[in-house]
Design a protein that fits this description.
about 15% strand, about 250 residues, about 35% helix, CutC-like, alpha/beta, eight-stranded parallel beta barrel, CutC-like_dom_sf, two-stranded antiparallel sheet
């Protein structure tokens, strides 16, 4: 019997994890800096999200930008992986590429090894670095040999719907690895992604929080271009619930 497609929601707070759990998510991916593509959360944030939500997959990414990491960055992320697992994460979300666009198998293996060092079951997901690989299908084909649990992908396209054909090819190339569609996913595109072979879907279900300021707005660093945009994202319960409904109908 085919397993029910899973729903993963990207969240940035314990409140987001709780909202995701209450409205039908099977798990959450926890990060900070969602507007930067996601960065590693703190140990305290991980612990609070684990307390509040469904199984927590922790994104481990030490900086924004490309996915070509040097030895110092890989060592830092391996330490973050061990910290995330110690803080109660059910899994970690990792990835790295070589300068010529191939999967950095040595880095990925080192990060996966760090995840499993605790001696308990820990899921390991390859994040969307795969979508910037020279050949995402070839990269996915390496994952069973590395012992990874799943891969999050848009099929190398701007959105998962545009990459649906390649998502199907990745699922065929990586038996035993859960292929999770992510990237511009909306509830009304879920059925198409499941039909393409996605075993799970990932979306942020985000909306901007209303600013709470007692004084005048002053731009700080590279923050929002306006007072209205200079805020943070929160999880929209209605989007999570609708995604759950559409996924159940598709599955």
């Amino acid at each position: 019997m085919t397993a029910r497609p899973a729903l993963e929601i990207a969240v940035t707070s314990p409140a987001g994890a709780r909202t995701a759990r209450e409205h039908g998510a099977d798990r959450v991916e926890l990060c900070t800096g969602l507007e930067l593509g996601g960065l590693t959360p703190s140990a305290a944030l991980i612990e609070a999200a684990v307390e509040a939500g469904p199984p927590v997959q922790v994104l481990v990414r030490c900086r924004p930008g490309d996915f070509v990491h040097d030895a110092e960055e890989i060592a830092l992320m391996a330490t973050d992986v061990r910290s995330a697992v110690a803080s109660g994460a059910a899994g970690v979300v990792i990835g790295a590429l070589t300068a010529d666009g191939h999967l950095d198998v040595h880095a990925v293996a080192a990060l996966a090894e760090a995840a499993h060092a605790a001696g308990r079951p820990v899921e390991v997901t390859l994040h969307r670095a795969v979508d910037q690989a020279a050949d995402p299908v070839a990269a996915a084909a390496l994952l069973p040999g590395l012992g990874l649990t799943r891969v999050l992908t848009s099929g190398g396209a701007t959105t998962a719907v545009e990459g649906a054909g390649r998502i199907a090819a990745m699922a065929a190339a990586a038996p035993g690895v859960e292929v999770m569609a992510g990237g511009g996913v909306r509830p009304d595109t879920i059925a198409e992604l499941v039909a393409a072979g996605a075993a799970a879907v990932h979306l942020s279900a985000k909306t901007r929080a209303a600013p709470r300021r007692g004084g005048d707005w002053v731009p700080l660093g590279a923050g929002g271009a306006s007072a209205e945009q200079d805020t943070h994202f929160v999880t929209d319960p209605a989007v999570v619930a609708e995604a759950r409904r559409m996924l159940d109908a598709a599955g």
